């Protein structure tokens, strides 16, 4: 589903060149939950931004669903990006829009008609367990509920891949647990492939089939979670 081959990304700064990712190769298979773990500064965000096509690698190849996406023209890039949903540590909800609109606004930028849009908002709010919160504003929701809205917003685009950038890092342990269970359900029941980045080992142990460990821009270890860490 996602294949990175010899991907490197460097940034030029006043202090010189920063090698954020250094020769990373990994493959995320269709239907699995793949985790990337590492300390702050390891290069996880930069890596996931290369998958989300927000960042272009300096070297190497990124293949998504059998399509090489480095150097794609803008129009085709947009097509591939539609297959990818993303959630973040900070939720990224619009404070001045209610839950319904937070999910609907990005859909209005696509070809989805009003009827289908309504259907999707209702369907995905139900899947995340917030069907009674259509009219609430983000400020009235807990952190876990905000993340559920963000997940519904990502799912409403009906992506094949869901990327998660530290989605549970701002949440308490019980809320983290419930969001991880939701991600498992999305993976199993909707068949969505998930790639997540985290600095928390328990996130990997609870839901990831396979894991890559990053340090200083490099993947230092990669394999099945059960082989790398004992299950929690
Ligand atoms: P992580 O997500 O694991 O914390 P990042 O990918 O955010 O790691 O960062 C990896 C390294 O690349 C860090 O040293 C960071 O400061 C640097 N970096 C990330 N983005 C940029 C950028 N846009 N410009 C310069 N340096 C960057
Ligand atoms: P996250 O919360 O996902 O880890 P960061 O706070 O690391 O994100 O980065 C947010 C933005 O800042 C990203 O666009 C990243 O590329 C950029 N960035 C990160 N580190 C640096 C840096 N040292 N210099 C410049 N930009 C950076």
TrEMBL record:
Signal peptide coordinates: none
UniProt keyword annotations, A-Z: Amino-acid transport, ATP-binding, Cell membrane, Membrane, Nucleotide-binding, Translocase, Transport
GO BP term, example: amino acid transport
Keyword field contains Oxidoreductase: no
Keyword match Nucleotide-binding: yes
Residue span, ABC transporter domain: 2-232
One cellular-component annotation, GO: plasma membrane
One GO MF term: ATP hydrolysis activity
Similarity annotation: Belongs to the ABC transporter superfamily.
Protein name: ATP-binding cassette domain-containing protein
Taxonomic placement: Bacteria, Bacillati, Bacillota, Bacilli, Bacillales
Shown segment, full-protein numbering: 1 to 232 of 340
